[in-house]
Amino acid sequence: MQPSLKGRREGSPWVGLWAVFFKEMADHLSSTRMRILEVLILFSAVGAVYAGAQTLRQTVSEDPFLLLRVFTAAQDPLPSFVAFLSFFLPLAAIALGFDAINGEYNRNTLSRVLAQPIYRDALLWGKFLAGLATLALILLALFLLVVGLSLIFLGVPPDGEEVGRALLFLLATLAYAGVWLGIALVCSVLFRSAATSALAAIAVWLFFALFWGIIAQLLAQAMAPYDPFDPESELRQAEALLAFSRVSPNTLYAEAIQALLNPGVRSLGPVLISQLQGALLGSPLPLGQSLLLAWPQLTGLIALTLLLFALAYVLFQRREVRA
Amino acid sequence: MVIETQGLTKRYGKVVAVEGLNLAVEAGEVYGLLGPNGSGKTTTILMLLGLTEPTAGTVRVLGFDPVREPLSLKKQVGYLPDSVGFYGEMTAWENLAYIARLNGLPKAEAEVRMRQVLERMGLAEVADRPVGAFSRGMRQRLGLAEVLLKEPKVVILDEPTLGLDPEAAQEFLGMIRGLKAEGITVLLSSHLLHQVQAICDRVGLFHRGKLVLEGRVEELAQRVLGGAYRIRVGASPLEGLSERLGALPGVARVQLEGTELRLEATQDVRPQVARAVLEAGASLNSLVLEQPSLDEVYARYFQEVRHAA
Ligand SMILES: Nc1ncnc2c1ncn2[C@@H]1O[C@H](COP(=O)(O)OP(=O)(O)O)[C@@H](O)[C@H]1O
Ligand SMILES: [Mg+2]
């Protein structure tokens, strides 16, 4: 049990936060994991630009959102950059977080660190923020690489709105990565063995990547059965399916970047013809409108991240310091 | 009082780890928290530091409540855990630098202190080597270096000699004794009673979470062993010597142990013993005054408790 759960305690919970942050950050940046991630970054950036260039050569280069096309264009056998990111980032986040707390136990360093004048809060926040900052750094490197390469190979400078969309896309991606960092952090508190923790986090990832779609379908069918004589039942089922699939951070992320990267998207989820009245089909939405569209998904991702952190926090506060 | 607890109790579910502990350690003392494994020493230490919350009772260390004022307390109290670990891929210097930053030491001052403590612990040459390659003894010394980094008023050491070879253990105990000379109050725990008894001013003996005996080593020996003086006599032939020596004034008990006799006496009766052996016509091979061993005190105490029950 940790003192903080009872009564008032002296001083700030943030004392020592930056010491932890910089130590963890240095650890991440010098680790072998980071070298592997860097190689992956380089490959994916080159792949994205290559795929983008191929696609663009095939289409007429009248597209006003060239940079965004580079992000989303897939070229067999290469997945699109975005698809690659949504696959790669959870794994990177898990790689950075799965041994955050149990690593301290296993190295017998936790009691020594907590015997210093800091609270556990500082340790957990420091580790979380260092992971997030490392992910942000990875993302930024990727982003600059892709933009730079597409400038060289495609020769079209992105305009202001495109850059704005791309940066918002980065933010959404960071929030998505934050969710997986949170999951990894919870696992690192729950499981004493680092291997078990990594496996558990990857299991969660697999669950959402492969199985949640099917489960959401089954749940939706059970909750809102399709009735051939009731035309509205189909819509209800579609809505139920959407609600269930939005439990998954993958869905939230996919929807958010769909809205942000594709200015033509006007709605996320099932659309009724009546809702489209007065809308100019195919005409791009302004950035502000797209952001508004992605807003619930964005806040959802951030809220999920905070929730997971809070869970890790509560679990960690209750942990005994000795193994 | 530097360390004071009242009715300190810790339960883990049904397991009572520490029960009704009243501890009082004075400034400048070396206090030994001794007892077998699982008797509650580590739990007590964790409660003193606020690393685990007591189920009942109060703790004051340097006047601070570890539950309410952990930061002020931990600024002045150094702690060396029983299985001390470091970040293996970082050097000794980097490990210390991290702890210095966690303590909020300004960089310049931290570097001066780090150099000092590494020098003092004999680790100056290996400061730039990764700790992963350090021996157990070096890690233990690095742990003590880290403890001294914050210039503590109180140092708490959990099983400081665990895993050290006898020579390294004695050296390390010497370093601990050196802390007393600087006016640092030391609380150490150990299950190796005989090993640490020499450096403790006072000891508290734990049994199943309770402090059963407390005092200076000689006092305890006197109280529990009856005779504080234990004398080993090697003589031949041994026949009839037992009775003769047992009759000497001041001798409480005589026991045959192998080829030697073991005497317990209330005073140093070696001259009388020597005379008695020679008068009996036997030859005296050896005559040794043994230091009372805490292990024996402990064992005897429970023998008596069991007899009384
Ligand atoms: N986290 C825990 N959960 C349950 N029991 C524990 C826990 N930690 C310690 N104990 C029990 O508390 C008792 C005292 O342990 P400890 O303080 O480690 O003894 P010592 O340090 O003297 O060897 C032991 O019986 C141990 O099993
Ligand atoms: Mg112990």
TrEMBL record, chain A:
Keywords, alphabetical: Membrane, Transmembrane, Transmembrane helix
UniProt entry tagged with the keyword Membrane: yes
Q: Where are the transmembrane segments?
A: 39-60, 80-101, 122-154, 166-191, 198-220, 294-316
Show the GO cellular component annotation of the record.
plasma membrane
Please name the GO terms that the record assigns under molecular function.
ABC-type transporter activity
Source organism superkingdom: Bacteria
Protein name (record): ABC-2 family transporter protein
Naturally occurring in which organism (per UniProt): Meiothermus luteus
Instruction: Recall the taxonomic lineage recorded for the source organism.
Output: Bacteria, Thermotogati, Deinococcota, Deinococci, Thermales
Automatic annotation (TrEMBL), chain B:
Q: Which Gene3D superfamilies match?
A: P-loop containing nucleotide triphosphate hydrolases (3.40.50.300)
Q: Which residues form the ABC transporter domain?
A: 3-233
CDD domains given in the database record: ABC_DR_subfamily_A (cd03230)
For this protein, the record's PROSITE patterns field holds: ABC_TRANSPORTER_2
A GO term for molecular function:
ATP hydrolysis activity
Alphabetically sorted, this entry's keywords are:
ATP-binding, Nucleotide-binding, Transport
Q: What SUPFAM superfamilies is this protein classified in? A: P-loop containing nucleoside triphosphate hydrolases
Task: Tell me which InterPro entries the record gives.
Answer: AAA+_ATPase, ABC_transporter-like_ATP-bd, P-loop_NTPase
Q: Which domain of life is it from?
A: Bacteria
| Family to which this protein belongs | Belongs to the ABC transporter superfamily.
User: What protein is this chain from?
Assistant: ABC transporter ATP-binding protein NatA
